[in-house]
Amino acid sequence: xxxxxxxxxxxxxxxxxxxxxxxxxxxxxxxxxxxxxxxxxxxxxxxxxxxxxxxxxxxxxxxxxxxxxxxxxxxxxxxxxxxxxxxxxxxxxxxxxxxxxxxxxxxxxxxxxxxxxxxxxxxxxxxxxxxxxxxxxxxxxxxxxxxxxxxxxxxxxxxxxxxxxxxxxxxxxxxxxxxxxxxxxxxxxxxx
Length: 192
Description:
The protein is built from ten helices and nine strands. It is of the alpha/beta class. The chain has a seven-stranded mixed sheet, with helices on both faces. The termini are far apart.
């Protein structure tokens, strides 16, 4: 025991609540938000955190359940539910299929929030999540310390400390949104 070290990508469900609050701040007119994710995502700690945040923010949040690698039913649910926005669950399939999700949101003029900045780089509205570049830099420091003789069991597992808010103003304009200055000032990066 005691031989594990490294850096965690996980910060807890509170991150997802903050991400929903930022979406509401960026698009104050939101009323109905579809939670795009699996049943497991909806029932997870993150899902419960988002549901509690939606209640506090006076948003109607409803699940749009995905099947593995299949978004057809979820997209139909989003349309039937007349969502104003899509809140993309933070599970790996949503990173893998980010283009499908962003294209759907763009075609249907839906505000959208992602954990992964790569979705915003290809046209998504916004992302809020761990600054992975900072984690990679810190991981290199861990490797250096171990190569210099530190025992992995003596190095604590560290939590992320830096987060990125990325806004795509071109996507906002296409949605007819003007991102408030209060949100833009919080952004680490704005894509024009």
